[in-house]
Write a structure and sequence with these properties.
Distance between the termini: 87 Å
Number of domains: 3
Structural class: alpha+beta
Mean pLDDT: 83
Helix content: 40-55%
Shape: flat
Radius of gyration: 28 Å
Low-confidence stretches: 1-10
Number of helices: 17
Amino acid sequence: MSTATLPMPPVPVRATWTASLLVLLPALAVLLFVFREEAANAVHIWTNTTAYNHGWVVLPIAAWLAWERRDRLRIHAPRPAPAFGLLAIPLVLAWLAAERLGIMEGRQLAVLGLCLILVPVVLGWRLTLAFAGPLAFLIFLVPFGEWAVPTLQAMAAWLVDIGLDLTGIPHHVDALMIEAPSGSFYVAEACAGLRFMVATLAFGAVYALTMFRSPGRRLVVLALSVIVPILSNAVRIVGLIVVAEWQGSAASVAADHLIYGWFFFLLVIVLVLLAGLPFREAPARPVIPATPPVAQPRPLALALGTVLVVVPALVATAAAARLEGLGGGAPTNRPLPLQAIPGCELEGEALRCPGGVLSARTLVFPPAAEWDSVARERRTALGAVEDQDLTFDITAGPVRWRARQPHSSADVLAAAAFLDGRQAGDGIRSRARQALRALRDTGDGRPVVAVVHWRGEPGSDPTRGRAWLREVMEAQGEALAARAIALSRGE
């Protein structure tokens, strides 16, 4: 006599939620522990960089957006979808590539993607789709956009040039420097508009998710959240120059120009908000079924999906640690010889000129060093970075040096990186070349960073310090970087 196999009875949705959360939360904790460097870096940037202070409120806002959609929990029950765990493989590969290239933003975006994949893996794609808005808002946990600052600076200077043409104020724009009758204005990193654009984009995302339902209108809001801050930033700078012309001095607005900017952007945001109100859409009201949803228990699916996400993450971090160990080691610090020029005299390895002393050194890295450590040491060599520091380029022979003068300081620093006898930047090409070198471990050549430091005499004019540094470096010409270039070839 045979017995029929009875189907497993459905369980109440509360029990299903309990089982799902007991898998989801520990899995998220494991990922955050494995990728604690990415998480710690994000928290550090939220705390220390004004453009990303909003990172602290992203999770509470996402939780509020999810709470507003809580009725959807009465429609869908958790239904694990382990197949989505396969998406962890390309994300883990992307993380490993970003780690080798030294792109922290890429690493953090990949980690966020891994955490988000756990949602459909454990809860199912229907619940994920129902809460897609709050989940997508979590992208603002990643401090992205710093790479766009130079482009935003150049765009602001271009738009300001057009705006001043319209006002009729005589002016001259040289790269990021704007000369007007009332004085000189520099489009510093703080004036690039990144902090306003990121804040406006985050606000625009919340506005789009709460006021509109159609994807088209939401995309329009997000597009305006990028375009409006760029245009508004240019209008702000033009307005400050107009005020300075009216008062007769650029210094009269320099001290409070950031405060003026925040008030101006608050006004812009309020105007954009009011402009969007006539087009708002009523929130969708989901149809709640008469009987609560039920789900079949699927412990094997929960376990399989979680393993598909967590195990590749563990393997990738172990591989990255192994590769990092092969190319580890601190750079060696070596002096960079200088040549005597008219008006300056050598003092040991330094060059004394009227108004200050010039010294130079090189940082020579192991052949298999990550480019991230090269870029980090180059930034450190340029000193602590403030938003209002003055940044500019100096061309000496075939090399373009990136220079930075701390705010209200007579000291100026310049640096350049070299790889295989050629100047290298922080872009993808340089990072990829060094990553391939580290994998091949050929041993010929190595990354080198050359640093030039002008120490101005106490009380000296900062403008004169910049002029002296430029003059001395241009007089040194090709010889200034010759030794660093040779070292980068392994000579």
